[in-house]
Queue: 3 jobs
Job 1
Amino acid sequence: MAQDHRLRMAAGDIADAAVRGRAMEGADIVFHLAGVLSAFAEQDYALSRRVNLDATLALFEAAGAGTRIVYASSIAVFGAPLPAHVDDRTPPEPALIYAAHKRMCEIALADFARRGAFEGIALRLPGIVARPRGAASTRSAFLSDIFHALRRRETFTSPVSPLSTFWIMSVECCVDNLVHAARLPLSAAATGPALTLPALRLSMAELVAAVARACGVDAASVSYAPDPETEAVFGGYPPLATPLAEKLGFRSDGTADDLVRRVLATR
Amino acid sequence: MAQDHRLRMAAGDIADAAVRGRAMEGADIVFHLAGVLSAFAEQDYALSRRVNLDATLALFEAAGAGTRIVYASSIAVFGAPLPAHVDDRTPPEPALIYAAHKRMCEIALADFARRGAFEGIALRLPGIVARPRGAASTRSAFLSDIFHALRRRETFTSPVSPLSTFWIMSVECCVDNLVHAARLPLSAAATGPALTLPALRLSMAELVAAVARACGVDAASVSYAPDPETEAVFGGYPPLATPLAEKLGFRSDGTADDLVRRVLATR
């Protein structure tokens, strides 16, 4: 990625004002994806405060009126357990430090946008697949690992039962939505809000079937050894309705097969 | 107040850790009422960030597991314009820096409480009367000034029309509710939430009539010169339902006459 001639790397600690200054120099569109992921944040409040809250607020404070900030929030803001149905009117009830800080930044973003400090839009991302293998030992890693395993015809054991459901999106589809957010004409009414992105709701059995189909392996070769804790977190994502984002042109992958095709086309 | 032998004063900047340390030393119950009020916060983001957000988070971070924090939030979190009806399910949509910071602290408080860092409860206060005369030149000062004026049989001109409505509570009733919050058994389910307090919804005409009655003056002596901006903020507070707080034993003043009696009994 660093070799793409369109990219200028400014690697460093986002909590460092000099690093943020280098990264945002001359930028009229900022995709703010940096963050300490949920499991790590839950183990280290101070780190999450520094990165997920304070550095994000500092980034907002430094942005000028000509800037548009596309802020990556998360479906984690809805907390757990989830209600029987989630839509644009479901009140966020964060149940993780990570989620609380994401929600606090959504509110801050809306307030900066209200005051015209910059144009801002927050997108609540679902589970994004596939992350690089072994990139992060998060509880949701199995959603990526099934792609890595079946593509290599390796055995795979699911830590959730076949009927477990989750909200999921391919990296490609996620990028399309981020770019759409950057280009979208934002009316005063639409600027600032946190939008839950459309996502595919799949069961583990549906995901396994689609990945197996695409990789030409037998879905029956996947075994299941549900882990109670993983099952508790990824056992039952309810139906999700996102008319607000869809009306603005944001899209899910469409079908399980489309999602799998996009994921497998990327290395 | 400083002469009450039960009180120990620790005056200073709440953003100063040493001041917070002195104020909270040995405290098992903390009523956190300190803040930069809405009009001032709107004019000075950095001040609101420092006092209303950062100092509050620092206070939360320093509190021990044996502490209960009663945090004064505000009906300002609901934003403007308000929906036609507000209840415990109405989503807060802050439209002021002050309100955004209050809402962010509500979320932080709930997260600290969820983790058992301390017991926390946030109360959303309505307009509290009467503030000391000339204490703060806020837009809502007229709600206090009418008491000061009619008690002294001075003329009073209302900056809102007779049919303007607002949510209001006497200082006495507010204190009762704060103390109730400090003593309330908090289940795991009840800890952390932000509760909108029951409040009286009165029109200016109703308030004028009750204050005039109690002071023995003619309500017709009050004149009206509605100011469009004040009217826009205090013109139309809709009906308010707060079953969650009422079920937990929080109370409004009951009637306009009760509210006025309590206010006039205090100097």
Job 2
Amino acid sequence: MISAEKLTLYELAAADRAVRFSPHCWKVRMALAHKGLEAETIPWRFTEKEQIAFSGSRTVPVLVHDQHPRGDRATGDPAISSEVISDSWRIALYLEERFPDRPPLFGGAGSIPLSEFINSWADTALLPSLARIILVDIYKHIHERDREYFRTTREKAFGKSLEDVVADRDAHLAALKQVLSPVRRALRNRDFICGATPAYADYCVFGMFMWVRCISGFDPLEANDPVSTWRDRTLDAFGGLARSAAVAD
Amino acid sequence: MISAEKLTLYELAAADRAVRFSPHCWKVRMALAHKGLEAETIPWRFTEKEQIAFSGSRTVPVLVHDQHPRGDRATGDPAISSEVISDSWRIALYLEERFPDRPPLFGGAGSIPLSEFINSWADTALLPSLARIILVDIYKHIHERDREYFRTTREKAFGKSLEDVVADRDAHLAALKQVLSPVRRALRNRDFICGATPAYADYCVFGMFMWVRCISGFDPLEANDPVSTWRDRTLDAFGGLARSAAVAD
């Protein structure tokens, strides 16, 4: 990226603003690293709807891509174009389209629909399965003023109290193990879901594990699970970007 | 394919040998049609292990690809090469590699790992979910001499009787609806899982619905489900190949 461009990413933060735990924001963080792009990250909390109202979205991630007229944006020139993209999937497509000379997030156009399926699987199967394990941990670590919002929206979604959702951890761990079967199988023949190196479909799944890692002290994977080995490899990618991320106490 | 080549596909058959109901064999049938290839299909039943012993596999699909020295195999020349491939995934890779000038099953090398993930998802999430609905229907329609084998192996896998597995159909239908979420989401933006036209990942999922269609009178999808609309489109592909397939009475 030439210095006339600037990327800004609004990320969900815990009570400790250094802790960025949204699975969807982690998809974007990994995608930016994959593309070799730097972004200023701005902590955002669930109830700060007004701070991102400019995006038309009520949730993060929100990415702002400013382009300045001269090479040195320190001159204070206003941006001549400013694009605002919300939703991690749309952000990934945007990055792929706008930075085509950087390493590809998708292995060609044919891979985009297939990656979207895997993203949808992560969101609709893996996310709820992990939520049943960490929902109360999230509640404990988010900012005090986010708690009522979080409890109300999640208890409505699950149809029971947060505490009741996570009550039977052993059953949820057994269900998770089954949910992860396609990942485990896919990793029999290769190091990453996308092949010899990770790409966007890996980050879609990995984001879910960063969500757990950043907000909960509990590890839902057994050490000998191939999914755990894959997670280790992805934690080490890009100089250990994800491994060095702040986690909640 | 030049006339010097011959493909033979061993397929699982019901009591009525015209009924070919294996989800994995249907993946191959669709892949062959996609490539514009014809194959002689040979009905096979669960307990006929000896008939396919030459393949080293105990299950179908098994594909045999014979090449004859001259253009006209009717001369009775023995095949100069005969390749035997079992397992639907390996067959798909084989067809892609051996018939590269035909329409691609995968949209480039980057799509192969992603398609394998979707195949694994179909096998480990969708298949068991549908099995909980149709297991007794399968038992009723397979050949009498296959029944004991089927009951024994499936009851061991599920840890209960076939009748107990399918007992709570309403709960299984609700679970299926949730399992299908990634397919439904993927179809929001396109006609097929793979994009504007179907490819191998579509057939991996579609094979599961052909399994149900051929062996059970029950349709687990609601008519207004986008998955049902996609299934209709795929039933119509290749001149209605799948729609015209024999189904059990």
Job 3
Amino acid sequence: MENLSDIGEDALIARLLKQVPISGKGIIIGSGDDCAVTEYSKTHYELLKTDAVIEGVHFLPEENPTRVGWKAIARVISDFAAMGGRPKWFMVTIAIPTSCSVRYLENLYTGMGKCMETHGGILVGGETTRIPPGSSLMISIAATGEVKHDELVLRSEGKVDDSIYVTGKLGGSISGKHLDFQPRIDQASWLVKNFKPNAMMDLSDGLAKDLPRLAKASSCGLILEKNNIPGSLNCNLDQALNNGEDYELLFTVDVNRSEKLENEWRKKFPKLLLTKIGSLVNKQIGESLNGGWDHFL
Amino acid sequence: MENLSDIGEDALIARLLKQVPISGKGIIIGSGDDCAVTEYSKTHYELLKTDAVIEGVHFLPEENPTRVGWKAIARVISDFAAMGGRPKWFMVTIAIPTSCSVRYLENLYTGMGKCMETHGGILVGGETTRIPPGSSLMISIAATGEVKHDELVLRSEGKVDDSIYVTGKLGGSISGKHLDFQPRIDQASWLVKNFKPNAMMDLSDGLAKDLPRLAKASSCGLILEKNNIPGSLNCNLDQALNNGEDYELLFTVDVNRSEKLENEWRKKFPKLLLTKIGSLVNKQIGESLNGGWDHFL
């Protein structure tokens, strides 16, 4: 019998989506981008996102719960940023063993609250539910956000010859950044207002996994300038490409706007690196890139 | 150290909500009703809901996954019904061990799809993520719905002297109904258009738990006519009050409209019982009612 480990995450999702209604009036983008996008008002779209963090997979049992709570919310805000939008309403589902202490949960919520206060979002609902003894604690976040019609950026609209950029440094997130990262919401907001990227997504599964996704969604190939990839301290190229959980922005802009973007970025965000790491090209001539994080392989 | 089993679900939630931002412009109702309600358009509110079903808690490992999928979606639709609304966009998060078969998951989605096709809703996103071996499979559903401004019903607007009604029969859900139930979405829709209830909710934790919640939210007491409670076949009063997972509507209407409601209901829904089970009264003279399902006690 075919198991999940035989087919991988992307192929699995494609099969599951055949079982349910997925199209309808009002859907701009369904599954497949960082968020779903639906019609909302004359000026804005609604963004919809769900994301889970699980004990033993996304954090260790002994981890400080305040940091875990921050991470759970920040991951979702990072996805809203990747669409050019902002968070609005949050719902939090926590599945916990009854042996869990009230204090642990309060600290988890304190971390979630700090992230919402810093980057936006209000809690409007959710649920706490018990799990059988021995099961891993799970936090499932669902949220809506909004984006102006003309500021929406998809991962699928990259063009041949676009310059490919990443913010920050890649790799080595496990040493701490995967818990404490700042979602790039202000940077994304500035970008969509000033140098609207053709394509954008956030880096969650590693550049080696996510960049091919962006290129494929955009029907392009890619050329990677490996020497330019900004690795974190003590990270080699392999780690920068494959570690995952970077939560940086990956985006493409028209090559003719590259120089101006780089100059203005340095003035606006002097403390955050912006690096050109390659170009989109015709898909027949692009190089292949494999690796990164897969939930089931 | 204080554990979850020391304080119970309602007290826990009250403590957790102190840690996060919960108020903001555009929120009509936050945590505490069947769904959150937010501003949406000139004619409609948006409903927001998240709900999880967990292997070993809400269904048995050997259960047919198609039925489990149906249940996961139907529970959420039942909550939209309880507000007078309808479902719109769904996101499904599944946390699974990698040893799970692709076929099992496909059947789970088939059940979810059947329920959406029958009662409404479109899948726009979600996630599959792995859990450590030995953990329970978990399905977390997040959804948005909508309700017309003048058809929104809360659990908190019941009035002294209102008649209290339930649909269907209570208790014994574990023998099968908890998996195969039909959410009362059409009945709720007819009610809000024709006999708008003052208060309404869906019965998920048992009448003994949920009716006091409705009464308390409405600042009323309650008188229960125990002899009138419509028990399922082979269920005694205790089971009808406490088993939970009935997924029937519990609502209150002005006593002067009771007779007309009962007559018209019989014509409109001849196959579904509607039973007056008591009245809301001044909170000083109401009786107390304890029991039902609590996730942590």
